[in-house]
Amino acid sequence: MKKIITSLLLFTLVTTTTVFAQTGVNDPEAKKVLDAVSTKFKTFKTVKAQFSLLIENAAGKSLGNKTGTVYMKGNKYRISVTGQDIFCDGGNVSTYEKSTNEVTITKLDPTVNTLTPQKLFTNFYDKDFLYKLNGEKKVKGKAVQEIELTPIDKSKPFFKVLLYVDKAASTISSAKLFEKTGNRFTYSVSGMTANAAVTDDQFIFDAKKYPGVEVVDLR
Predict the structure, then answer these.
(1) Spatial separation of the C-alpha atoms in residues 173 and 65, rounded to whole Å
(2) Closest Cα to residue 29, out of 162, 148, 168?
(3) In what order do the strands lie in the sheet containing 184-194?
(4) Residues 6 or more apart in contact with residue 111 via CB below 8 angstroms
(5) What's the rounded Cα separation, in Å, for the pair 114 and 219?
(6) Cα gap 117→93, rounded to integer Å
(7) Neighbouring C-beta atoms of residue 106, cutoff 10 Å
(8) In which band, very low, low, confident or very high, does the pLDDT at 121 lie, cut at 50, 70 and 90?
(9) Top-confidence residue, 40 or 215
(10) What was the pLDDT predicted at 98?
């Protein structure tokens, strides 16, 4: 379940970014909002963000809720959730499972569309979605702009993503993904610190800190 949740988190991060550079969009106002998010994020040297991931069924019943922290610096990132840590030092990705004391290491290939948290905020992909600005609403007292994304590829397991952008801060506050099965996944940013004190060693998996860890090296 932990692997599914983390994979979904990364998947959500990507689905909410692939629209930024899309051409031929049907709503230029939505593009202005997304471009502003991308432009602002690129000014940050480092980012630390707290997030939550809520899984619900079609009836709105909670199926699970996870919280965690993501750290970003350049092309490096680290995601920490209950029982799992993912380290990316810019060259390798190490996924550590606490329950099994096992780490799986894979090579990061920049030539493929690797899922990374940075893609939540930058214009890396294109041509995957149609999008429109649904308008503004209040969420916890803040004005947010709701953007609806529809995948062009209808074979995707989801049919819609709602992206919420903090109007004042020009940052993404949450994203809600709707699966064809009826399940809904909400990824929310509960706090973000730009230019946080983040050191390079935070992105490296150090086996010495995990006594008896089993290393599965797939590089």
Answers:
(1) 17
(2) 148
(3) 129-139, 142-151, 158-166, 171-179, 184-194, 46-56, 62-73, 76-81, 84-88, 92-97, 102-107, 214-217
(4) none
(5) 15
(6) 13
(7) 15
(8) low
(9) 215
(10) 93
67/69 Cα distance (integer angstroms): 7
Task: Give pLDDT, residue 23.
Answer: 44
Structure token pair of residue 86: 């993912």
In one-letter notation, the amino acid at residue 12 is: T
Q: What is the pTM of this model?
A: 0.74
Provide the terminal-to-terminal Cα distance of the chain, rounded to the nearest Å: 25
CA distance 22 to 132: 12
What 3-state class would DSSP assign to 32? helix
The structural domains of the chain, with segments of one domain joined by +, span 2-217
Q: Give dist(CA 129, CA 132) in Å, integer.
A: 10
Assess contact for 36 and 167: CB atoms under 8 A: no
Q: Give 2-217's CATH code, choosing from 3.40.50.620, 3.40.1390.30, 2.50.20.10, 2.60.40.1180.
A: 2.50.20.10
Tokens of 167: 């109007």
The span from the CA of 213 to the CA of 95, in Å, is: 12
